[in-house]
C-alpha cells in the first residue's frame, strides 16, 4: 500500500511546495481536487485546453517523486437546480478526461441527490420508508434521475479507461454499502467506491465488516477517523445536524486517524483491505475540528506510517 494525502487541506500552498513538503514527510502520493466542493487549488481542468500547462503540471508531479492516487471532484451532479447540476456534472466529465490525460485510473465523486420531484428546488435525502410518499420519492429518484445519469457517466468513464469511486456519504443516494452496491449493479463495474471509514462509524456500520461486503468495489480509500460520544448520542442520535464545530454537544465528530480509534483497530482495517484485494493508497483527509490542518496531517502521517503495509507478501516456507 501507499500512504498519501488529499491536498485540499493544503490549498493555501502552491502545488510545488505541497509536493516537496509531502515528499519530505515520507509520503508516497497525492489526491488532487479538480473543482466542486474540494476546489481546484492544485489541479486545474483548464489544462485540458492548454498543452503547455498540462506538460508543466506533469513534469512538476514527476519531479516530486510522488504519484497521483486519484482526482477528486466531489459534487452533486443530480442537483435539482439545473444550473448547479450542469456545472457539477461538467466538472465530473472534464475530470474523467483529465485523468485519462494524466494516466490516473480513479476519479472520486459523490453519487448525488435529486429533489423530490421534477421542478424541485433543493435535494431531498429520504431517510425512512414512512409515510408512504417517501418511498414514492425514493423510487422516482432512482428510476428517473440516478439510473440514467450514472449508466451514461459510467460508460463514458469506461470508454476513457477511468473508474469512478463514489464516496458513500449520508445526504446522497449512495451512503451505505447496500446503496453503493445497488448503484454499481445498475451502472456497471466502472463504478465503485472511495471508502471512507469515518462515514461508516457514525452510521453504526462496522467499517471492517463492510470491507467484506464491498470487496472489489473498493477503488480508493480515505484515512479519516470518527470519535463517538455516547453521553450525547442518547440525546442526538447519529443524524446530528449541529455544526461540526459544536464539539461538546455533538453525538460524534470527525477526528485525525488515531484520535477516534487506536493502532489495533487501524491495523485490522488495513489488513482486511489487503485480504480483500485492495493494495492502493490510504489517502489522509483532514476534517478534524480540534486540530489544525498542519498538526492533523503530521499526526495522521506519523500514526499511519507504522500501520500501512507497504511491502507485497512473498511466498513462505509452508506454502
UniProtKB/TrEMBL annotation:
InterPro entries: IolE/XylAMocC-like, Xyl_isomerase-like_sf, Xyl_isomerase-like_TIM-brl. This is Inosose isomerase. It comes from the Bacteria. GO terms for molecular function: isomerase activity. Keywords: Isomerase. Residues 19-306 form the Xylose isomerase-like TIM barrel domain.
Amino acid at each position: 500500500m501507499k500512504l498519501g494525502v488529499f491536498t485540499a487541506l493544503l490549498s493555501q500552498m502552491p502545488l510545488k511546495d505541497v509536493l516537496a513538503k509531502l515528499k519530505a514527510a515520507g509520503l508516497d502520493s497525492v489526491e488532487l481536487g479538480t473543482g466542486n466542493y474540494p476546489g481546484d487549488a492544485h489541479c486545474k481542468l483548464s489544462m485540458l485546453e492548454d498543452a503547455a500547462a498540462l506538460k508543466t503540471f506533469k513534469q512538476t508531479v514527476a519531479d516530486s517523486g510522488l504519484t497521483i492516487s486519484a482526482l477528486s471532484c466531489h459534487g452533486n451532479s443530480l442537483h435539482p437546480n439545473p444550473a448547479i447540476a450542469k456545472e457539477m456534472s461538467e466538472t465530473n466529465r472534464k475530470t474523467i478526461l483529465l485523468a485519462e490525460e494524466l494516466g490516473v485510473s480513479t476519479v472520486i465523486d459523490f453519487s448525488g441527490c435529486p429533489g423530490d420531484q421534477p421542478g424541485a428546488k433543493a435535494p431531498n435525502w429520504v431517510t425512512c420508508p414512512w409515510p408512504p410518499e417517501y418511498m414514492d420519492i425514493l423510487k422516482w429518484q432512482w428510476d428517473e434521475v440516478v439510473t440514467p445519469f450514472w449508466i451514461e457517466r459510467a460508460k463514458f468513464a469506461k470508454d476513457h479507461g477511468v473508474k469512478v469511486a463514489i464516496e458513500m456519504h449520508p445526504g446522497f443516494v449512495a451512503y451505505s454499502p447496500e446503496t453503493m452496491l445497488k448503484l454499481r449493479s445498475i451502472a456497471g463495474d466502472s463504478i465503485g467506491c472511495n471508502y471512507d471509514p469515518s462515514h461508516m462509524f457514525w452510521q453504526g456500520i462496522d467499517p471492517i465488516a463492510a470491507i467484506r461486503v464491498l470487496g472489489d468495489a473498493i477503488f480508493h480509500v480515505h484515512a479519516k477517523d470518527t470519535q463517538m460520544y455516547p453521553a450525547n448520542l442518547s440525546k442526538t442520535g447519529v443524524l446530528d445536524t449541529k455544526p461540526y464545530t459544536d464539539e461538546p454537544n455533538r453525538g460524534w465528530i470527525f477526528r485525525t486517524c488515531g484520535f477516534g480509534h487506536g493502532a489495533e483497530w487501524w491495523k485490522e482495517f488495513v489488513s482486511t483491505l489487503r485480504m480483500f484485494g485492495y493494495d492502493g493508497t490510504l489517502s489522509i483527509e483532514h476534517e478534524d475540528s480540534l486540530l489544525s490542518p498542519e498538526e492533523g496531517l503530521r499526526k495522521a502521517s506519523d500514526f499511519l506510517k507504522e500501520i500501512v503495509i507497504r511491502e507485497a507478501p512473498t511466498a513462505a516456507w509452508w506454502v
